[in-house]
């Protein structure tokens, strides 16, 4: 008897505590701050009561007999659930639709596969929903909405809350073949309010580098030098002290603005998202999708704090697992009756007695009798009843709506020290579709770098990076530019202000990969040439008056060429003492210097230098080669290379190649001027291309032309 009295006292204390907790929650609900309920300033107001529902199908305005029976089953299920779990929040079962008619949540899911390849994968569906709809917060952050509109109405007005987002995304994922479910649960403030200012921008995340495992087979082990244990201990101690001081300085440097504020409603904020189970569509692991951002999350993510229930177009499940540690310990085996309570038994389910394992688990629970009673009552459900078909009309998205995925033509997302702006194609006349702005400070006032992405540009411009600190601009092009441009780095499109141009070298006959030019020098890099040339460096002198280039502007004067240096790769078909590695032409001094490749056993390269090779005697006749004009050092050369006739023939060939080189340098200068002129004209007259398959844009341009 004393034991029973103690148990009764403990039970009364627990009831009193639960009563105090429920009263405290009611006080919190009634004292929600105004900023938690009000719509954010960046979301324009919209009156849902003013929408026109007269043209909606009859299924939106009435319930069939099967739907009425489903509502009756749901009410009976909710009555049992409330009796057995009085401390749990009410389930989200049959909110009113846009016509004021109560509809069971599973019948609001309308599986649909839209005819766009991008929407066949979950990432494309999630991206479309997050971009196409405008987020609206819940009226009360701690309770689910009183209404749930059809996905067709949500698509029409391009706005909705987290439940509207989730139902639309779930409908698209199920239509694409995924095992997807809508989730009613709880999440953090940042997830519920779409606050990403503390997150790193996805465009700034660097891909993880996979370390290369080096084989240690036959590796010579070098013995390490002996070290003092005392010195190592002192060094480690000093490092720890330095790290502690640095950590304290960093903590002191963090301002109050950078510290996240404590959320008074943590754990109480209602949110809806999508659950994708593994199995179908070769999904390896179960994961969550936040419909506001379109990002995937692991089921152990600490941003998701608990789950009340989940549903799809076939059934409804209530979570009866402990969520005090969030969702990381939850089991998503929906066939497990200990973890999930199903509303409608599956057609292939058989009512059997609980296993010994289930009984042992139930006995360990405090509410063993209640759970057992709940299980017995569920056995009495109608096994033949199936979920009614969806009352929602077919979900359709036109080509124009799919191309223009932003409700207001533009979308802005703020991250930590970054801002992302997105536009639909053809909204901007310059083809701009996305812009990433990186800031130095958390207030986003000092710009460090701006990256822009373009589409449908006739000049094939794909991306532009602008460094605001160095003022350098880099344009990236997709293949197809008339000048075979791949990238162009510059500060200004004016000549000789510093330009680096990269080409698609495989499409060029000369194999030119990159050209770097400024006021005093020009360097060209080649790939895959038959003569094994890979670098050509040219130095220019000060410009002289009267030097101009034919076919160019009159204000452009040629720069005198001072030196031309070429570097060659090794040609395995030639001996090393005949294969030139580097040759230098010093134009003002009329000097030519040759350096040859080395053999494997050589240490010093052979060299030949021609100094003032072209001279004249007293009679005015030219003397090409003397002992004073040719200096050679060929320690490994054969008798052939020591022959004067060979040196004379080589000099004659070099004189011809020098003239050709000077001509090629002038052509490179002219090509660089042409590149700058073409780029200047392209930026002044930007043109966008329209694919023959883009019906939406072609119709829009035709309507604009007819209207004008």
From TrEMBL:
<keyword id="KW-0963">Cytoplasm</keyword>
<keyword id="KW-0966">Cell projection</keyword>
<dbReference type="GO" id="GO:0031514">
    <property type="term" value="C:motile cilium"/>
</dbReference>
<keyword id="KW-0744">Spermatogenesis</keyword>
<feature type="coiled-coil region">
    <location>
        <begin position="651"/>
        <end position="699"/>
    </location>
</feature>
<feature type="domain" description="CEP76/DRC7 peptidase-like">
    <location>
        <begin position="270"/>
        <end position="343"/>
    </location>
</feature>
<dbReference type="Pfam" id="PF24667">
    <property type="entry name" value="MORN_DRC7"/>
</dbReference>
<feature type="region of interest" description="Disordered">
    <location>
        <begin position="1"/>
        <end position="48"/>
    </location>
</feature>
<dbReference type="InterPro" id="IPR056290">
    <property type="entry name" value="CEPT76/DRC7_peptidase-like_dom"/>
</dbReference>
<keyword id="KW-0282">Flagellum</keyword>
<comment type="similarity">
    <text>Belongs to the DRC7 family.</text>
</comment>
<keyword id="KW-0206">Cytoskeleton</keyword>
<feature type="domain" description="Dynein regulatory complex subunit 7 MORN">
    <location>
        <begin position="408"/>
        <end position="691"/>
    </location>
</feature>
<dbReference type="GO" id="GO:0030317">
    <property type="term" value="P:flagellated sperm motility"/>
</dbReference>
<feature type="compositionally biased region" description="Acidic residues">
    <location>
        <begin position="1"/>
        <end position="13"/>
    </location>
</feature>
<dbReference type="InterPro" id="IPR038765">
    <property type="entry name" value="Papain-like_cys_pep_sf"/>
</dbReference>
<dbReference type="InterPro" id="IPR033551">
    <property type="entry name" value="DRC7/lobo"/>
</dbReference>
<dbReference type="InterPro" id="IPR056291">
    <property type="entry name" value="MORN_DRC7"/>
</dbReference>
<dbReference type="Pfam" id="PF24656">
    <property type="entry name" value="CEPT76_peptidase"/>
</dbReference>
<keyword id="KW-0221">Differentiation</keyword>
<dbReference type="GO" id="GO:0007283">
    <property type="term" value="P:spermatogenesis"/>
</dbReference>
<feature type="compositionally biased region" description="Acidic residues">
    <location>
        <begin position="241"/>
        <end position="255"/>
    </location>
</feature>
<feature type="region of interest" description="Disordered">
    <location>
        <begin position="235"/>
        <end position="260"/>
    </location>
</feature>
<keyword id="KW-0175">Coiled coil</keyword>
<dbReference type="GO" id="GO:0030154">
    <property type="term" value="P:cell differentiation"/>
</dbReference>
<keyword id="KW-0969">Cilium</keyword>
<protein>
    <recommendedName>
        <fullName>Dynein regulatory complex subunit 7</fullName>
    </recommendedName>
</protein>
């Amino acid at each position: 008897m004393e034991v029973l009295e103690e148990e009764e006292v403990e039970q009364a204390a627990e009831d009193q505590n639960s009563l105090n907790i429920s009263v405290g929650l009611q006080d919190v609900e009634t004292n929600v701050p105004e900023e938690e309920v009000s719509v954010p300033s960046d979301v324009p107001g919209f009156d849902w009561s003013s929408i026109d529902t007269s043209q909606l199908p009859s299924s939106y305005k009435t319930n069939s007999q099967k739907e009425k029976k489903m509502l009756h089953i749901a009410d009976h299920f909710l009555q049992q659930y409330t009796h057995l779990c009085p401390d749990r929040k009410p389930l989200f079962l049959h909110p009113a639709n846009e016509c004021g008619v109560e509809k069971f949540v599973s019948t609001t899911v309308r599986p649909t596969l839209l005819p766009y390849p991008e929407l066949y994968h979950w990432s494309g569906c999630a991206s479309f929903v997050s971009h196409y709809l405008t987020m609206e917060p819940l009226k009360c952050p701690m309770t689910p909405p009183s209404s749930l509109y059809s996905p067709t109405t949500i698509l029409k007005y391009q706005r909705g809350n987290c439940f509207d987002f989730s139902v639309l995304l779930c409908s698209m994922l199920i239509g694409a073949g995924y095992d997807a479910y809508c989730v009613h649960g709880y999440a953090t403030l940042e997830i519920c309010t779409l606050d990403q200012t503390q997150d790193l921008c996805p465009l700034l995340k660097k891909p993880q580098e996979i370390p290369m495992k080096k084989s240690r087979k036959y590796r010579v082990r070098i013995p390490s030098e002996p070290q003092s244990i005392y010195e190592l201990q002192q060094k480690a101690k000093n490092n720890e002290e330095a790290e502690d001081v640095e950590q304290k300085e960093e903590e002191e440097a963090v301002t109050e603005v950078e510290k996240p504020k404590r959320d008074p409603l943590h754990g109480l904020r209602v949110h809806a998202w999508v659950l994708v189970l593994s199995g179908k569509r070769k999904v390896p692991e179960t994961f969550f999708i936040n419909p506001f951002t379109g990002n995937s999350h692991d089921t152990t993510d600490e941003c998701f704090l608990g789950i009340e229930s989940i549903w799809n177009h076939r059934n409804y499940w209530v979570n009866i697992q402990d969520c005090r540690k969030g969702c990381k310990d939850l089991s998503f085996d929906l066939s497990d009756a200990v973890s999930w309570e199903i509303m409608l038994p599956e057609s292939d389910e058989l009512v059997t007695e609980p296993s010994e394992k289930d009984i042992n688990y139930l006995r360990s629970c405090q509410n063993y009798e209640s759970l057992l009673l709940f299980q017995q009552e569920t056995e009495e459900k109608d096994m033949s009843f199936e979920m009614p078909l969806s009352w929602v009309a077919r979900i359709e998205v036109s080509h124009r709506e799919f191309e223009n995925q932003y409700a207001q033509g533009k979308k802005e997302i703020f991250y930590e020290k970054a801002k992302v702006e997105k536009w639909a194609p053809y909204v901007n006349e310059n083809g701009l579709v996305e812009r990433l702005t990186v800031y130095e400070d958390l207030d986003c006032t000092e710009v460090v770098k701006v990256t822009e992405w373009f589409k449908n540009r006739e000049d094939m411009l794909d991306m532009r990076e602008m460094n605001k600190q160095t003022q350098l601009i880099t344009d990236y092009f997709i293949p197809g530019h008339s000048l075979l441009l791949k990238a162009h780095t510059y500060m200004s499109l004016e000549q000789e202000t510093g330009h680096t141009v990269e080409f698609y070298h495989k499409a060029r006959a000369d194999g030119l990969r990159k050209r770097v030019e400024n006021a005093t020098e020009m360097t060209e890099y080649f790939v895959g040439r038959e003569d094994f040339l890979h670098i050509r460096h040219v130095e220019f002198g000060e410009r002289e008056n009267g030097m101009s280039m034919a076919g160019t502007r009159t204000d452009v004067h040629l720069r005198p060429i001072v030196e031309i240096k070429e570097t060659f790769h090794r040609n395995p078909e030639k001996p090393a003492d005949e294969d030139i590695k580097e040759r230098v032409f010093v134009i003002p001094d009329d000097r030519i210097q040759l350096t040859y490749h080395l053999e494997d056993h050589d240490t010093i390269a052979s060299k030949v230098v021609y100094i003032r090779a072209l001279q004249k005697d007293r009679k005015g006749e030219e003397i090409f080669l003397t002992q004073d004009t040719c200096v050679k050092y060929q320690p490994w050369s054969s008798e052939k290379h020591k022959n004067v006739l060979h040196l004379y023939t080589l000099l004659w060939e070099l004189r011809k190649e020098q003239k050709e080189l000077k001509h090629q340098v002038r052509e490179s200068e002219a090509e660089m001027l042409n590149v700058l002129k073409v780029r200047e004209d392209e930026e002044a007259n930007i043109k966008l291309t329209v694919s023959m398959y883009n019906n939406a844009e072609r119709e829009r341009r035709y309507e604009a032309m007819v209207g004008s």
